[in-house]
């Protein structure tokens, strides 16, 4: 199948202002619920306090990215010469905007200050809109578009955004004085170009070098480059961790965790298959209740160490990772544990439990109630 036909098959262009508003409004609510799920995961001791704090930061950045995109495209379809300027989403695999949208946003960010210099301030544009309405007695479409672009570039210049690459940051955890070990938590994130989905990574490691990792100009830049190069959803955690362990003799990854956000399934916007299609189809009677979001957490934990000779008079510590040989699926996927979850509104959950529960028996359900309270069911 030619590339153009593949894109037509998998991508959907939201070519009306109404569809664009509905799509971004839905995602705004979903991301708000994700924060609730992170808090509930902390209460259930599925994640630590430090991990919950980092997740909250990335989810806030993701919310800002969606808000910025909503301003960019809200009025574009109403300006005739920009009729083809519409947001594209992955309708078959993820439900999120396609990778190119975030790439373009990153490019726009570098030019944001120039655009803000050339565009009138918001107050000036609003006054011009009022004058246009009073004098022309028509909708000030061009000015509305200019205002939306002004707000878009303000967001890019002022807010933390979730980009295609969100580079590693390091957090001090503690120090074992007897063993001369420092412990750090490194976190980073990416927007995968193949799956069109965001993924968040957390690595807890021991540092046995004399100089602290964040202040080591020889190791820290290499660590950042290495981790970003391995931030591909298709790579197993075991592959990522063992590669890191081999490349850095004084850094010992004790835990690696990856959060997959999505896919997002929506009866109105995506073309899902299998039981989830039937669940959302039957729950689509009430507005806003026809969606579900997958939330998958993979974890790899070191269960011990060995010594490996790395020179004539030198040996290095290597990790032995805990792979459950009794669980072929987990062992094959290169993880110690995997938690699959589904976040969905109460109406969709009712349909799922009544008719399709057997298909989701191993999936934790986070159910959003009518008062936005989230309950957890296994």
Give an account of the 3D structure.
The protein has 378 residues and is of the alpha+beta class. The protein has 2 domains: 3-158, no CATH class; 165-377, no CATH class. 42% of the residues lie in helices and 26% in strands. It has helices at residues 3-10, 17-43, 49-74, 99-110, 112-118, 122-136, 141-158, 220-229, 237-247, 275-282, 328-333, 346-355; strands at 11-13, 88-90, 165-176, 181-191, 198-207, 251-266, 291-309, 315-321, 337-345, 364-368, 374-377. Strands 3, 4, 5, 6, 7, 8, 9, 10 and 11 form a 9-stranded mixed beta sheet that branches. Strand 7 and strand 8 form a beta hairpin. Helix 3 runs antiparallel to helix 7.
Summarize the structure.
The protein is of the alpha+beta class. The protein contains 12 helices and 11 strands. The strands form 2 sheets. Strands 3, 4, 5, 6, 7, 8, 9, 10 and 11 form a 9-stranded mixed sheet that branches.
Query: Taking Cα atoms only, what radius of gyration do you get, to the nearest Å?
Result: 24 Å
Count of domain modules: 2
Helix fraction bin: 40-55%
Number of strands: 11
Described by strand count, sense and barrel closure, the largest sheet is: 9 strands, mixed
